Recover the amino acids of this structure.
């Protein structure tokens, strides 16, 4: 049986199910909003439901041969593997449990590891199993994880997912892929990992894993995981989506805004930051709204205890500017809903990040998403 340290992933992000628009410009709050009506609302997070995950007791796992190290921080990426085993026609739960036992035995008895190397396993039937000791309870807690043995130096920073089968010339079955999307979305939510931080084993090791075909699907996987997070696990529902980040040539900022690539939670690097002030100096995200109507507006930022706890996001709604304050010390590395807004048709500065706040810490401008 193929050891997990022979897997692959990491294709550059591609176009998903919906078209993406990137770009942003900087204007003053008053100039872009054009109206004075202000409303304040609290942002809401879409929640991805927990998939069914079979714990180690369910598949009769052996205890680890010595204590598994628990990393008391969040992982910052997901690493995708394939088992390089036969593409079984048996998709039963019994087969999935047998697979988990076989992998653990191989890793402990042949590789000499203390336990299964990866944190989780998904069978061709779409059954998800906890692999390494303490992987499930730490995932549920969302603040720690067991140090793995699946991706070399990335073991201290990543969650490894082993997918049953060999995908050098064929794609994984729909049941496996759908389970992987759901599980990755849940994992990204729990650990605040951006979907852009889903990689293949071959990105970090000299290996064919997870197979050429599966590796080529990783950009789509990232998009599908982002969609699942967008809709709380239900996917998107509209026919328009514009994602606007701070890396394109359409983004301009005054000299008061700096750039940083420090945080792994960012949607785009570099992202922009600025000191709070009691004056108008907003970074604006520009988009082409195809028709007048109601749109969902979401924002993405990296979080840190030193960032601003009362950052104003200003939406240029058709009835007047509307402001939503967010705490950028939390909920980083995911889409956060700012609410639904009535928008006019046309190309204009739709969402701004204002520096005008009494909150403390840097305000961040990373990415926004507008969809119907």
């Amino acid at each position: 049986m193929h050891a997990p340290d022979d897997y692959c992933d990491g294709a550059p992000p591609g176009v998903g199910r919906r078209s993406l628009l990137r770009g942003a410009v900087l204007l003053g709050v008053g100039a872009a909003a054009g109206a004075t009506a202000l409303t304040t609302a609290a942002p809401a997070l879409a929640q991805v439901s927990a998939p069914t995950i079979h714990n180690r007791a369910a598949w009769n796992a052996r205890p680890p041969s010595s204590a598994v190290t628990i990393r008391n921080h969040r992982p910052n990426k997901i690493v995708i593997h394939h088992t390089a085993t036969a593409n079984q026609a048996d998709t039963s739960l019994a087969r999935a449990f047998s697979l988990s036992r076989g992998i653990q035995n191989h890793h402990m008895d042949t590789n000499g590891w203390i336990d299964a190397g990866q944190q989780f396993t998904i069978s061709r039937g779409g059954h998800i199993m906890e692999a390494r000791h303490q992987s499930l309870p730490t995932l549920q807690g969302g603040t720690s994880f067991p140090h793995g043995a699946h991706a070399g130096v990335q073991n201290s920073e990543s969650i490894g997912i082993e997918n049953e089968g060999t995908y050098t010339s064929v794609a994984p079955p729909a049941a496996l892929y759908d389970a992987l999307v759901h599980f990755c979305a849940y994992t990204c939510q729990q650990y605040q990992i951006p979907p852009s931080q889903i990689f293949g084993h071959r990105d970090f090791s000299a290996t064919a894993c997870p197979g050429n075909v599966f590796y080529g699907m990783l950009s789509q996987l990232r998009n599908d995981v982002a969609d699942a997070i967008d809709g709380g696990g239900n996917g998107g529902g509209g026919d328009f989506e514009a994602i606007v980040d701070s890396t394109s040539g359409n983004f301009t900022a005054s000299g008061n805004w700096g750039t940083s690539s420090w945080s792994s939670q960012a949607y785009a690097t570099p992202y922009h930051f600025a000191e709070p002030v009691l004056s108008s100096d907003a970074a604006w995200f520009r988009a082409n709204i195809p028709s007048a109507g109601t749109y969902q507006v979401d924002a993405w930022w990296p979080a840190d205890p030193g960032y601003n706890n009362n950052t104003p996001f200003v939406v240029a709604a058709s009835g007047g500017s509307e402001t939503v304050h967010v705490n950028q010390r939390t909920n980083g590395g995911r889409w956060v809903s700012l609410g639904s807004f009535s928008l006019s048709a046309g190309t204009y500065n739709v969402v701004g990040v204002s520096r005008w706040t009494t909150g403390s810490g840097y305000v961040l401008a990373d990415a926004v998403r507008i969809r119907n």
The chain is about 20% helix and 25% strand. The chain has two domains: 25-46+238-371, 49-230. The first strand starts at residue 25 and ends at 26. The first helix runs from residue 29 to 33.
